[in-house]
Predict the 3D structure of the following.
Amino acid sequence: MSLIRLKIDTFRNIDSAQLLPGDGLNLIYGLNGSGKTSILEAIYFLGMGRSFRSHLSQRVINTDADQLTVFAVMQHARGEDKVGFRRSRNGDTEVRINGDKVKRLSVLAETLPIQVITPESFSLLFEGPKSRRQFIDWGAFHSDPHFYQAWTNTRRILKQRNQLLRDGSSYSNIQFWDRELVRYAEQVTSIRNAYVDSLNELLKGIIGEFLPRVSVKVSFTRGWDSKTDLAQLLETQYQRDLSLGHTVSGPHKADLRLRVGNLPAQDALSRGQLKLLVCALRIAQGKLLKQQSDKNSIYLVDDLPSELDADHRRLLLKQLTDTGAQVFVTAIEPSAIVDSLHRAPSRMFHVEHGRVTQVE
Ligand SMILES: Nc1ncnc2c1ncn2[C@@H]1O[C@H](COP(=O)(O)OP(=O)(O)OP(=O)(O)O)[C@@H](O)[C@H]1O
């Protein structure tokens, strides 16, 4: 699956741009502030309905405009899909797939699986468990059709339970919700666990290539002690939960542990090595999706050359192109990418003050 046409309007400093991306590697280059990342961000919007840079989606709308639109034609084995996304300054959002309005943003994610690697992707390893959980859940969502509903139900019940705790409800009032919570939590956990197991197989090979002298261990923790029954735990921790006003243990605390020897990966690896580890995780995720559902992800790699020496740039570009997926990479100087590729990029785009031109 790949984008064969992309149209971006009033998105950050891009007034209007039209790109005809190639199947393989698309190189986007230009000076600082020219609008390279904005192109990746626009593609991400189309797949996720939000930015990977700012949680305030309205900020990406061009300052002189009232709305942004991103439109793409996607090609896949069964034919073509037209996907359109519009967001207004007042927050109104319209998503269309082949002209039909779509209500749930998760439909976008199913249609357009995206892997993004930015210089800030280190947050996957550094910033608490939330981003690591999001990483697992991206995969769980794509690998099992039951995950989305089970996780939505879990979150809804947790919200109810926390409200009851804040209201000072007795345990007998909470017990009904706990039974429901346990049911969905077990489903969520078993899908997550199976996903991380499958991912680990692929990950070993890729990490072995990127970081041959480092032994990285990746494991899943479910959010409560593995030897304890969740129903029992919720009951014994009720007083504590009540005093805190929220549920301390459960699937909302699941995590992916990345360790080198006895240390967390972020304490044991250099910045370049951490970037490679994040890339390995993303590439493994994309490869697993391809194996499980024959869908290709689209890879967005912002400022690919940063932090990497020439050998590792080559290695990363080779791994990315070997996936057979469509890849968009940005760089300030095109030579930083072109010199590290064994074959010319599929397409090159130059960005200058928000104007995008294809370079022949
Ligand atoms: N809402 C907006 N409206 C108009 N311009 C914006 C808006 N938000 C950001 N910009 C501008 O858009 C430009 C593009 O930024 P972008 O991050 O895409 O550049 P870049 O080419 O990736 O730069 P770098 O190489 O420094 O990462 C910046 O100059 C920024 O000031």
The chain has a mean pLDDT of 93. The chain has two domains: 1-113+297-360, 121-294. The two ends are 24 Å apart (CA to CA).
